[in-house]
Structures are given as C-alpha cells and as structure tokens.
Amino acid sequence: MHTQLDTATNRLPDSLCTHTPACPPAEGSDREAAHVVVAHPEQGWSLLCNGVLLFEDTGELLPDGRVIPPHRTLAVVA
C-alpha cells in the first residue's frame, strides 16, 4: 500500500482506512481496534489505519499531535 502525503501540510491524512466497515476514528475510545497499516515491532511502533501511532508500551500519538500516555496495567510482584 502506498500512501500519499498531503502536499500542503507534508503529513499523512488523518485516516488511512479504506475498508468496510470503517475502523474507529482516532478520537474514539476504541481507536486501538483499528487495523495495522505498517508494523515495526523491532522499533516498537505500529501505524493504524485511523492515523494513530501505537507504541509497544501502549502510548499513542494521535494524528493531530496529541499524546496519549502509556496505559497498560503493571504486573504486581508478590
């Protein structure tokens, strides 16, 4: 899949979703359910089709530049 940059802003479109049904939007609470467009597990990130960069620590970077801090649960050692 080849994605074009917006030449006016030099950035990817907010949504890369081209399938039906459409994936949840980047603003939705279920945004992590979107399909993976590009995966780089060796670098610790994936690009979802709604434009969200999802990091292996569960942090996220939204298309508008907002940062969602990591939110995975920590294991408790007894």
TrEMBL record:
It holds the Pfam family DUF5999. It comes from the Bacteria. InterPro entries: DUF5999. Keywords: Plasmid. This is Uncharacterized protein. It comes from Streptomyces roseochromogenus subsp. oscitans DS 12.976.
